[in-house]
Amino acid sequence: MHKKETLKLLLKKLSASTQWKGKPEKDQEEWIGELYNSLVEEDLVDESLSFLDDLDVEGDWGKVKERLAEPKTMKLGARRKIFKYAAIFLGLISLGLGFVWIYDSGVPKTIPHQKGNFVILNTGDGTKFIDNHESHSIKLSTGETVAVHYGDTLIYEANEGISDSIFNELQIPNGKMFTLVLSDGTKIQLNSGTKIKFPARFPKTGNREVYVYGEAYFDVTKDSEHPFIVNSEEVSVKVLGTEFNFSSYKEQNEVTTVLIEGSVSLNHVAQNKEEVLLKPGEKGTWDRFKGRMEVKEVETSLYTGWMKGEVVFRNASFPELLANLERVYNVKIENTNSEIEKQTFNARFNRNVERIEDVLEALKIIVPFTYEEERGDDNRKIIIK
Fold it and tell me: Domain spanning 119-302 has what CATH number?
């Protein structure tokens, strides 16, 4: 089941690729659904995933599209073959891998990227730097494959050869978002500036526990015998199988859990109080200043829109707002204007549409200020005055 869900995840990412821009969303979903069902029915899931790294996207994609347009009366063997190659190309395109190489004496080398702009994975056996423009297996020094990396997605399989006592740590840099699929099939979308600690393989007995510092959206695989626990420094969230958003950035006043589907219970780590149960559409909040848990109904899209690039502020202090902008745009912001330090803001914008300059210009309408920009070799700094 895990491999089927992995394939479905890769195909769904197709809708965001440049090759499909301008085409109706309904047509995209129908085509992807038909392809996925055919791959499963014809037992091509393993084949499709295993060939992802080996094909010439630019050279052969045109041929694949021509073959897909042929009548469905083609022979079964030919149809199996074309669906296999279609899956491979779709996987590459949907992940936006865009394999671009510089050839030096026939040896491919990846184009260097800005320093510090990599996702960092610590496997307990060394540190790996993950580039969204590449795809490869993550191996330990023993030769064991612990995970497979496809573009902006890292997928763990339930490898019995990996110790369940080994914890991995994934750190997402500012300016990036990333998807992690755990060994039980649980899918986690990670926001900028987030760190997550998790076992390479969940134990056969006990809870499935992870540790999050930042913001993540969880789609947890159901397993009644092994509850899923999300831990932060202050709050733990217990689930059996559900979807929810969790946020625990240090500069925020609150640690929040917004339940989309299923049920979860919240508990403060240092207090021996009864667990707080959430229903879908509710937000559970640990207020760091008040030292108490609160529950209320909310518009969930305000808390999950970040996965589509939306950034929403509700009664956010200026320091909190600036810290968020630093994460989203991977820029350092220094505020020297003490008059707006205590101002609160309500705002909504999209990181995929508005530049940092657009956001600052909009904020200036609410509270007047000026700013200037400094650029270094590897960083960018904005000074607010």
Answer: 2.60.120.1440
